[in-house]
Design goal:
Rossmann fold, alpha/beta
Amino acid sequence: MAYVKNTNHLLSHGNINTRTAALEIIEHALAEANPYNATKALVSIQGDILRVGELKFDLPQNRHIYLLGAGKATYPIAKALEEILGDRISGGVIVCKYGQEGTLSQADLHLASHPIPDESGFEASQKALDLAAQTQKDDIVFGCITGGSSALFPFPAVGITLEEKKAVSLLLLTCGANIVEINAVRKHLSQIKGGRLAKAIHPQAHLINLTVSDVIGDPLDYITDPTVPDTSTFDDAKATLTKYDLWSEVPSSVSRFLKRADPEFETPKERDLAKYNRRDFIIVKGDAACEAAAEKAKALGFNTMILSTMLEGESKELGRTFAAIAREVLLNHRPLKPPCVVIGGGETTVKIDGASGEGGPNQEFTVSAALSIENIEDVVIMGLDSDGSDGPTDYAGAIADKSTVSRARELCIDLFDCLKRHAVTPALCELGDAIHTGATGTNVNDLKFMIVSNSG
């Protein structure tokens, strides 16, 4: 299966040979980050014995198995579990982003909005909590929580409406905060996140978390936070609003709730869930796409290095940095001698002040890089959101080379102005440089890399 749907368009212009190599690297990176295969490798059943890694469970007739999950990489996990366990699954609630293809037979599949939550996700959250409350001693619950669950599992705290939660989500996503800062707030404004779904499950049931990381460093309470103890506090949530000057912009109900910081509404900590039977498995780590990209680049004959898998900050600034490294490679053969591939991963952000158009962090990274390599031969730079949706767009990211700016000029497209207005998607689509994958079924850290093909 090919992930990139518009390969022919992307290879109809520019440095075709190097673009081809870039697309081969993307295909391999996404395939290796597939949680369906990882689930099949971890979970198996033989007769009445269920194995999950080193865990072993006897499955008598009266033992219930449930699936509870939300996220952009959750469907492949749930699908694999259904294929393994079949009608041994007693039920489940799985929430995925609109556009997710496929069906489930043993669990209820709900589609909801991401990155801004909606009523569908709210209703599914209630059903997930209701099902968790039905669990009994010795039941097995697979927690299939992956990146995107914060939007797909919206259940606002008492006194806060869904509309107010939406407003806070938009502010957090456009202020330049990183995912740890954002989630510290979202977890403290929720009745399901921050370990609360885990607490709703019977303490003597078995909660088995299968997750895919999209957060730098793979911290469990930021990648599968509804079903693990929370390490953040009300103070962390308040610090985010202070750091990004959001107190005057959030709804008054949110401001009052966070400032009150009622201990009764603090998220469950390790001590609160200490008696629960819980095991956590990160089946695909956040740097999986970077590692796989490096593997493929080496196989294609490139000198290869992973610069960092912990990149953060403003996307357009990082784009200029990658372009500067490309010039260093060509002029001084540092940090690698060409032909080479330099890879980066992480979660960069875009700070939006005022009105904006359509775009995303990886697209802004690529356009910024393109503006800095317009006079440089033999360089291709690419930014990709592994889930297939970069920001609130239908595109996974973009690819650029020397031809990108010159073709834009011929079409009277001012890429600098598009970047300034955060409106790069229409320009990239017109140029044929936007990457379209659709939902990939995975969600690890963003993948960014450049190829310098000149071997001189």
